[in-house]
């Protein structure tokens, strides 16, 4: 009986560091200092004014859109998805420009009004949003939009 009690005490004491670590960690604790975060926003809504630049996102898009964050290094390729969005990407730094990256992508956004998909290559400037792709459908109930935008930030950045 005493042996069982001491084994139980030993087991309990061995779990204390695990419990303490679980209570004090946050998802962001697993980001390395040199890594970046690729933020992907997507929504069944309008992202930019019809006459605006692809980087001039509407405040309503930023409020209403869903956000997917992916930890990336400055030279990386990968894939991220949610129930509505799938995106593959390749990131490569631009020589001599530490805040600029060549961004290749292929994405698919599923909405209640269908799918929109695109692929391409563009220049990402760290911290700046870029509207990647979207769609506009005219129906009897009005105009329906969907859009996907990305930006690259430092962990804890803007």
Automatic annotation (TrEMBL):
<keyword id="KW-0732">Signal</keyword>
<protein>
    <submittedName>
        <fullName>Uncharacterized protein</fullName>
    </submittedName>
</protein>
<feature type="signal peptide">
    <location>
        <begin position="1"/>
        <end position="22"/>
    </location>
</feature>
């Amino acid at each position: 009986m005493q042996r069982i009690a001491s084994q139980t005490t030993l087991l309990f004491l061995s779990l204390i560091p695990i419990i303490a670590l679980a209570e004090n960690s946050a998802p962001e604790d697993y980001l390395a200092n040199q890594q970046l975060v690729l933020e992907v926003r997507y929504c069944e809504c309008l992202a930019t004014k019809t006459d605006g630049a692809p980087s001039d996102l509407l405040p309503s898009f930023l409020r209403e859109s869903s956000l997917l964050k992916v930890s990336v290094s400055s030279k990386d390729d990968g894939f991220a998805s949610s129930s509505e969005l799938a995106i593959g990407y390749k990131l490569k730094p631009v020589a001599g420009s530490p805040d600029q990256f060549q961004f290749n992508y292929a994405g698919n956004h599923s909405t209640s009004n269908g799918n929109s998909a695109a692929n391409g290559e563009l220049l990402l400037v760290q911290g700046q949003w870029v509207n990647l792709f979207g769609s506009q459908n005219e129906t009897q109930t009005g105009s329906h939009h969907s859009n996907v935008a990305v930006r690259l930030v430092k962990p804890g950045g803007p």
